[in-house]
TrEMBL record:
Regions that span the bilayer: 12-32, 52-70, 82-102, 108-128
Protein name: Major facilitator superfamily (MFS) profile domain-containing protein
Keywords annotated in UniProt: Membrane, Transmembrane, Transmembrane helix
Top-level taxonomic group: Bacteria
Length: 130
């Protein structure tokens, strides 16, 4: 993979991870300090301006990281079954995270975050190699 003008994969992964971390830290601001809800989503869920900033940082970092992983997949040489399992875990995790906003069972986000986290913890270190 050409490195010209793109920067090393490791630096890009670190930069994307820092954006994700910044987004998570902004989203951890207590609800009482966020201000008023600008966009109500469901009972008990809504976006404030602080949530919008955190979600934007998280989306930018996550998308950048996803692009890096997808571009490096041919170089990772993962067996098809492992690749399918990781894709299934990541998709299930994202689906449960989204569904937790709209469902009555609030704690689905923890299950979704865990399954997505497993896929990320396997793929990101492999992507940052070399």
């Amino acid at each position: 993979m050409s490195q010209g003008g793109e920067g090393a994969p490791r630096r890009q992964v670190v930069a994307a991870a820092l954006l994700i971390l910044a987004g998570v830290l902004v989203l951890l601001v207590p609800a009482g300090d966020e201000g008023r809800v600008l966009v109500p989503i469901s009972e008990g869920h809504g976006l404030s301006a602080v949530d919008g900033v955190g979600a934007t940082l998280l989306a930018c970092g996550g998308t950048w990281l996803e692009v890096l992983v997808v571009r490096r997949l041919p170089y990772l040489a993962l067996p098809p079954r492992a690749l399918f399992a990781l894709g299934l875990l990541a998709g299930l995790g994202v689906g449960l995270l989204i569904a937790s906003v709209f469902s009555g069972f609030f704690w689905w986000w923890a299950v979704g975050a865990t399954t997505l986290g497993v896929a990320v913890l396997v793929l990101v270190p492999l992507t940052a190699r070399r």
